[in-house]
Specification:
Length: 464
């Protein structure tokens, strides 16, 4: 027993819980990695069963570190999230949108109060560039990828006589693994004033021999207000349930500890996990852990009035960045995550990507799904879909883009002015143009009249 009934600790526990566990928080404060690494979430009493799902909050803190000076208040207009999705192992990796999809679904009801951007490419260099460009902007960095503990690493903590530290796996520009230490990440993020870090990575809370060794403790020691990490390998389904409830609670204005506690209860209540033998109950609610030095509330609850309609709710379609796309099916675009990942990587290397295949294999659906993904994650300024199936000309392409950007006044200008304006816009703004059934432009199938002759094609594609 940890707290025998005859000790003062047990008496203190009984007094603290007299008004109910939901009024209590449990803080494990220590600088000893052995203590921090114990599965405190499994504290159990005969009367209350497991404590962690019932208390108002449970978290770890570093006893040797004072609470840092208050961080300057971030914008309360939106909850700003930078999502880093690292999939360096391709087809063998977790599906690209495993975490992003439930996260986007969870944010839908409060979409106008949240700004979510996916880091492209998910390299550490781009990570530093994005945060330095927007210092003091992001409330949360969410890393969705792989983490581990490198016991042979010698970083900052080596001067304290210990070895090993947590690492996260980013991607190089070509998609290969890029191993980054906790010290590198912590220093960069602290400099850019990001208060909360969600590490949806395996073993991101595992401790080494020193309190600086893991990703979570290193970040907290440098001033992070809260770090949510995984103490063991986590099932994909459990991660989905956890992050869904966690973000829903944050946007309602709760503090980090309360949000984690609510998310943990959600995982406990949804305990069935897929297996080769069918769905089996799994007690993985104790895997996510929270590190914090003080209570922190990143976002104020959006003010709403039940008797007032917000016109923004009706303008969602008008504000869409998708232009000319075919209507989605009833259930939207599902699956093909590896194909989406391949397209993401292809556009890192080239401005023009050719998608080819037999008729009916789903090329159009894939490109439309890819565009939807980019639109949801701030991947492009505008996304245009133009079908050449029934014939289309260069002037139509220019007109589709121009009218979407500048409205009806675009038609007042000459063809030469329109073309120049569209070209300048596409050079300055990151956009995606999808040209569906493009083969008729070159006269395919053989024997058909090309929509553009050879000189026109060369002039348009190579000069511009």
């Amino acid at each position: 027993m940890v707290f025998p009934r005859t000790t003062k600790a047990w008496d203190f526990f009984c007094e603290a819980t007299r008004e109910g566990l939901d009024k209590c928080e449990i803080n494990i404060s220590s600088d000893d990695p052995t203590v921090l690494n114990l599965p405190w979430e499994l504290l159990y009493t005969p009367d209350y069963q497991f404590l962690a799902p019932s208390v108002a909050g449970m978290y770890r803190s570093l006893s040797g570190y004072a609470v840092r000076a208050p961080m300057e208040q971030l914008s309360q207009d939106k909850l700003n999230i930078l999502l880093v999705i690292s999939r360096p192992y391709g087809e063998k990796d977790v599906a690209l949108k495993t975490i992003a999809r439930p996260l986007l679904e969870a944010l839908k009801p409060i979409k106008k109060h949240v700004s979510l951007k996916v880091l492209r490419p998910p390299s550490f260099e781009e990570f530093e560039r994005e945060l330095n460009t927007h210092k003091g902007f992001y409330h949360i960095v969410h890393f969705d990828g792989h983490g581990n503990f490198d016991k042979n690493s010698v970083g900052f903590q080596y001067s304290y006589g210990s070895k090993g530290q947590g690492v996260l796996v980013f991607e190089n520009t070509n998609g290969s693994p890029q191993i980054i230490t906790a010290a590198q990440i912590a220093q960069s993020l602290n400099d850019c004033r990001v208060p909360i870090f969600v590490l949806n990575a395996c073993k991101s809370a595992q401790e080494g021999e020193g309190s600086f060794s893991s990703v979570a403790t290193r970040l907290v020691s440098l001033g992070a207000k809260g770090v949510v990490a995984m103490s063991y390998n986590v099932q994909v389904q459990a991660a989905k349930h956890f992050i869904e409830r966690f973000y829903q609670q944050l946007v309602l204005g709760t503090d980090i500890s309360t949000a984690v506690a609510s998310a943990r209860r959600q995982v406990l209540n949804q305990r069935l996990r897929p297996s080769p033998k069918g769905d089996l109950p799994l007690a993985d609610w104790m895997v996510p852990v929270l590190y914090q030095q003080e209570t922190y509330r990143p976002f104020s609850q959006p003010s709403t009035t039940s008797d007032t309609l917000d016109i923004d709710d009706f303008l969602e379609e008008a504000n869409s960045k998708l232009v000319g796309f075919p209507e989605q099916g009833r259930y939207g675009f599902i699956g093909r995550d590896y194909d989406i990942l391949r397209l993401e990587r292809a556009f890192r290397q080239n401005n023009i990507v050719l998608l080819q295949g037999m008729g009916g294999v789903g090329k159009t659906e894939l490109t439309a799904g890819f565009a939807q993904w980019l639109e949801e994650t701030q991947g492009r300024e505008h996304l245009f879909f133009i079908s050449f199936e029934s014939g289309a000309s260069l002037s139509r392409v220019v007109n589709e883009v121009g009218r979407a950007v500048w409205g009806d006044k675009f038609s007042q200008y000459s063809a030469e002015q329109q073309q120049k304006a569209v070209l300048n816009y596409l050079k300055q703004k990151p956009c995606l143009l999808i040209w569906d059934n493009f083969e008729p432009v070159a006269g395919f199938p053989e024997g058909n009249e090309p929509l553009l002759n050879a000189d026109e094609r060369d002039d348009w594609f190579f000069r511009n």
